[in-house]
Backbone:
């Protein structure tokens, strides 16, 4: 990979992250709505409103004073204190990121593996019944709101005694590590399955498209004329090249996956970032919202960068 | 065609809601809360005793209006950015595409949640927020088309006759990107309705209005899923999905007519086509 390609992508990612920081700062200051008014109950004396404003540093000039202290604090990982929990935002977010990573990771892994298998089966023989069913089903799955799918799952699987709320059974002390993992897995089953279901369609369609495209290349004809069986042509020659765009789709898609996780965590009471964000909306916990937005946005930018780099590393044609 | 049929049915239902069901259902207007489907209430009733079917019809009005108005804003911004970037090229193009990429990569839902929590939940706010977060895909498509139209011989000839930028854009560029704007719009309506549903489900829509999203929110909060109230849980979700599928179908049909190369590849959904624009800029 050329140094210019790498440098360009890195610079672009850094610029994007700086822009996200500026946006995060500016949103609360330029949009209508006063955070101090929203924070305090009605009928508070004016002196106290002024005191709170001073305490939060909001009486300083927006630029450069407030901006400099914001950048300095953010750079050192300080996002202030949560209004509702009265603990540092960083502590809160780190604590809640774990369950979200577990949910998003499990669902993505499930979706990509199943999606690639289905996409390969469909794309190897375009136009057959399996292909048509795959395309139709993917389209329908894509149009279903993931949280609604979660509610349906609760209606169906809830009857069979699957846990539908939280990450661990409250008050249950597992006798050993195995029982603890079992309890976690039982709780993870439904949210992960639903999130995966919402993603499978996209991966399957993408894999299918990529495979159909690859199958028209000349080297596939060469492989056939060598006398290879069709399965060998598909698996050994076509699939590796079709995998590339599909796998990098994970990186590009991470924003969408997070969006799904946010709504789904609320349906299943999963104690991750999504639940935190929604409870923060209800209690107008702006420091937490800002911190969570910054973390998710930076993660998505990093994932995009990783996807670009992996693509550049594996496919010499895009190094530019 | 299937897309148009589904869409017409829902538009008809939304428009004729007052004729079919009378005034918007008031609290306690049905016999019992959370009733199962019956002949009187085909989809059952909600937790404050309102006919779910009537709510779906009235909710469609809000969801469709939000979808259309947000799309107007979104496609307006996207077209403006796309044409200005594609027509001017160089620095302006680079700058505008950086901004577009920024909005593409920033998680739209989280940004929308953040903004909605600051400005407060109201119908107008939700429409504006969706409009301002969903334009980048349109901007990219329009820019690409503008770049190619700009280089065609008739535009060069017109410029040689001394035509200025406003004339070239109005008479030559716009007519040639118009069909693409329409295709992009239908796909954006689907995205907008989806985003409205999600925001409303998370409690970020005006709680006094009824949209399909707020219906799902109330169905969830009232525990209708756990109680097995199929009608109440299914109705808003099926409505959203059908309308989103309908718009996707229409958008794809547009694209196939416009771009004959796509005809062989009937599998690509509009959304995936949007994604491809993103992946391969």
Residues:
């Amino acid at each position: 990979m050329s140094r210019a390609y790498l440098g360009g992508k890195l610079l672009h990612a850094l610029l994007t992250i700086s822009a996200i920081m500026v946006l995060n700062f500016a949103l609360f200051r330029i949009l209508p709505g006063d955070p101090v008014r929203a924070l305090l109950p009605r009928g508070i004396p004016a002196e106290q409103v002024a005191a709170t404003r001073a305490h939060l540093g909001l009486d300083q000039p927006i630029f450069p004073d407030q901006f400099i202290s914001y950048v300095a604090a953010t750079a050192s990982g300080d996002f202030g204190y949560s209004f509702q929990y009265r603990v540092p935002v960083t502590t809160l977010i780190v604590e809640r990121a774990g369950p979200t990573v577990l949910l998003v990771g499990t669902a993505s892994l499930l979706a990509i593996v199943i999606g690639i298998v289905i996409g390969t089966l469909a794309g190897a023989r375009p136009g057959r019944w399996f292909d048509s069913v795959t395309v139709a089903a993917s389209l329908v799955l894509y149009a279903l709101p993931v949280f609604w799918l979660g509610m349906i799952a609760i209606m169906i699987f809830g009857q069979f005694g699957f846990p539908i709320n939280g990450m661990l059974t409250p008050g249950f002390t597992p006798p050993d590590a195995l029982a603890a993992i079992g309890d976690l897995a039982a709780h993870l089953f439904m949210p992960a399955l639903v999130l995966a279901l919402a993603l499978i369609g996209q991966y399957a369609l993408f894999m299918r498209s990529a495979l159909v495209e690859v199958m028209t290349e000349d080297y596939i004809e060469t492989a056939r004329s060598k006398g290879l069986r069709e399965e060998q042509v598909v698996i050994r020659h076509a699939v590796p090249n079709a995998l590339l765009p599909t796998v990098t789709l994970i990186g590009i898609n991470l924003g969408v996956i997070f969006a799904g996780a946010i709504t789904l965590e609320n349906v299943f009471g999963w104690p991750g970032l999504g639940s935190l964000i929604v409870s923060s909306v209800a209690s107008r916990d702006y420091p937490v919202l800002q911190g969570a937005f910054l973390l998710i946005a930076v993660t998505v930018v990093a994932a995009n960068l990783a996807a670009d780099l992996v693509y550049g590393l594996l496919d010499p044609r895009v190094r530019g | 065609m299937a897309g148009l049929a589904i869409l017409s049915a829902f538009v008809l239902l939304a428009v004729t809601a007052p004729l079919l069901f009378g005034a918007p259902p008031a609290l306690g207007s049905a016999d019992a809360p959370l009733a199962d489907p019956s002949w009187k209430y085909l989809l059952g009733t909600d937790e404050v005793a309102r006919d779910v079917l009537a709510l779906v019809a009235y909710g469609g009005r809000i969801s469709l209006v939000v979808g259309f108005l947000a799309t107007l804003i979104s496609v307006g911004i996207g077209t403006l950015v796309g044409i200005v970037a594609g027509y001017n090229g160089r620095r302006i193009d680079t700058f505008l595409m950086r901004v577009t990429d920024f909005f593409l990569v920033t998680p739209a839902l989280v940004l929308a949640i953040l903004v909605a929590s600051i400005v407060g939940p109201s119908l107008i706010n939700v429409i504006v927020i969706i409009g301002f977060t969903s334009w980048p895909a349109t901007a990219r498509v329009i820019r690409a088309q503008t770049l190619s139209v700009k280089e065609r011989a008739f535009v060069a000839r017109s410029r040689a006759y001394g035509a200025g930028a406003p004339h070239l854009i109005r008479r030559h560029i716009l007519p040639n990107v118009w069909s693409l704007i329409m295709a992009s719009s239908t796909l954006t309506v689907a995205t907008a309705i989806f985003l409205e549903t999600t925001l409303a489900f998370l409690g970020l829509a005006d709680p006094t209005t009824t949209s399909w999203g707020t219906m799902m929110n109330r169905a969830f909060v009232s525990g209708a899923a756990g109680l097995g109230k199929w009608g109440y849980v299914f109705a808003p979700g099926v409505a959203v999905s059908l309308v989103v599928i309908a718009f996707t179908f229409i958008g794809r049909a547009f694209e196939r007519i416009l771009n004959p190369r796509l005809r062989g590849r009937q599998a690509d959904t509009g959304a995936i086509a949007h994604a491809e624009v993103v992946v391969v800029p």
In short: The mean pLDDT of chain A is 85. The longest helix of chain A spans residues 230-268. Chain A touches chain B through 63 residues (CB under 8 Å). Residues 255 and 300 of chain A are 6 Å apart (CA to CA).
